[in-house]
Amino acid sequence: MTEKRQQDDRAVSRFVESFAAALVDAGVPHMPALVFVTLLASDDGRLTADELATELRVSRAAISGAVNYLGHVELTTRERQPGSRRHVYVLRDPTWYELVARRERLLDRWISTTRDGVEAVGPDSPAGRRLTESLRFFEFLREEMPQLLARWREQRDRQAPG
User: What is the DSSP letter of 111?
Assistant: First the structure.
C-alpha cells in the first residue's frame, strides 16, 4: 500500500469517527452511527459484516447489533452476496430522503400526542401554552416538509451528472 493511500485511509477513518460522533449527538446509537457512516464512505455503499468489523476494528457481534438497528430504522437492507451464503449490508437509496421522509411520520405522532397533552393540561394553563407553541411548530414543520423535499429533488436532478 502506498503512503498516499495510507493517508487517505487515515482521513477516511477520521471522517467516519467525526461524522458518526455528529450522528451520536443527534441521538443515533454509537455503533450503528459508525456502521452507517462506514457504508456511506464506501465506494459502492455495500459491505459484508466481516468487512465492517475489519474496517471498524470491532467484533462481528457489534456489527450484528448495529446492522439490525439500521435495518429496523430502514437505513440499510441486507442482501445475499451472489454465490455465497454471506450477507452484504447495503445503504438504502436515497438515504437522506428516506431519513427525512420518516421524520414526517414522526412529526405526525408528535402532533397527535402534543394535541392530547394540550387537552390534558388545559390550553389556557402555562403548560398548555407551551405545548400549543410546540404543536404549532410541529404542524409548521409537517406542512413545509413535502415542499422542502420536492425542492430538494428538483435541485438534485438539476445537478445530477448527465
Answer: H
Beta-ladder partners of 91: 76
What is the domain extent for residue 121?
A: 96-159
Domain count, the chain: 2
Q: Considering Cα of 109, then 113, then 116, then 121, what sign does the dihedral take?
A: negative
This prediction's pTM: 0.74
26 and 86 together in one domain: yes
Instruction: State the maximum Cα–Cα separation within the chain, in Å, rounded to a whole number.
Output: 68
User: How many CB atoms neighbour CB 21 within 10 A?
Assistant: 14
Contact call for residues 39 and 33 (beta carbons, < 8 A): no
Residues 6+ apart with CB under 8 A from 149: 97, 100, 101
Percent of the chain residues topping a pLDDT of 70: 93
Residue of 55, 11, 61, 10 whose CA lies nearest to 36: 55
Could you read off the pLDDT of 42-90 as tens digits, one per residue? 999 999 999 999 999 999 999 999 999 999 988 899 998 778 888 999 9
